[in-house]
Design a protein that fits this description.
Length: 269
């Protein structure tokens, strides 16, 4: 069986940069029509340049502005995508932010912003995607599954992170959202999984890799001794969305160069 997403439509949230852009490009090169979602006017140029890379390589897609934390915008995005491309086959819930603060100084606004985008945004997009999957039903000319959802979580789904209580809480909650959806819609042949990246070189964690000293510190946490790239996540997302992964649902796949082996225990413990 081929790893192919031919004839399928994929919505990738927050894909004007970083991991989302990597996933959008990988999915497009595997044959999917990709919706490159971006949140605000200022990110349009970046979204257009991701789409240009896709179309220059013979792929297909569109850019679409939508703040995933806003219900009306999410509902409209799915309506518009279905109106233009007929349906949605794959949702990659990737959009996410960090608003870090020591716990006693964390404002309600920092908490709500992170939960609103990282968790509520994933809920809203998943709800609209599932409704569309169920409306369409299985079409084996596209996939043997009725639909696929991939949540972009994090190693912080299981690794506590001091100074990032809002972020770690959002990622921990994604695990339960993912598993509940996999359980609730398994009988409908909807597959739901999470990808849990370790350190991937993107704007969100620039301060962890932009100087040689910072990168050397980071690599101490990674047995495989390199920082991850968006393409690493793109390759996994394509596989998970493809029919090659048809028996995979309700699981979190860690892709972290061994970070969750807890390298600091390698010299004792
Ligand atoms: P990034 O900052 O490049 O990407 C985040 C994307 O989300 C941006 O394109 C941004 O425009 C978009 N976004 C922000 N708010 C949005 C909103 N309200 N609606 C729609 N889009 C919105 O960083 P990244 O590293 O590519 O992060 C992507 C995902 O990967 C996030 O969920 C992040 O938590 C997760 N992640 C990243 C790493 C890493 O090491 N980079 C590790 C684990 C998990």
């Amino acid at each position: 069986m081929e790893v192919s997403l031919k004839n399928q439509v994929a919505v990738v949230t927050g894909s004007s940069s970083g991991i989302g852009a990597g996933i959008a490009k990988s999915m497009a090169s595997s044959g999917a029509t990709v919706i490159v979602n971006y949140p605000f006017e200022g990110a349009l140029e970046q979204a257009n340049s991701v789409l240009k890379e896709i179309t220059d390589s013979g792929g297909n897609g569109m850019v679409y502005q939508c703040d995933v934390s806003k219900e009306d915008q999410v509902v409209k995005m799915f309506q518009d995508v279905v109106a233009r491309f007929g349906t949605v086959d794959i949702l990659v819930n990737n959009a996410g932010v960090q608003k870090d603060a020591p716990f006693t100084e964390m404002t309600l606004d920092q908490w709500n912003t992170v939960i609103g985008i990282n968790l509520t945004g994933q809920f809203l997009c998943a709800r609209e995607a599932v409704k569309e999957f169920l409306r369409r039903g299985i079409d084996t000319s596209r996939s043997i599954a009725c639909g696929k959802i991939i949540h972009i979580s994090s190693v912080h789904e299981i690794v506590p992170w001091a100074g990032h209580a809002n972020y770690a809480s959002s990622k921990g909650a994604i695990r339960m959202l993912m598993q509940t959806l996999a359980q609730e819609f398994g009988g409908d042949k909807i597959r739901v999984n999470s990808i849990c990246p370790g350190a991937i070189q993107t704007p969100i964690n620039k301060n962890a890799w932009e100087t040689p000293e910072a990168l050397a510190d980071l690599l101490k946490l990674i047995p495989y001794n390199r920082i991850g790239q968006p393409e690493d996540i793109g390759n996994l997302a394509v596989f998970l969305a493809s029919d090659m992964a048809d028996y995979i649902t309700g699981t979190s796949v860690f892709i972290d160069g061994g970070m969750t082996t807890f390298e600091s225990f390698s010299t004792g413990g």
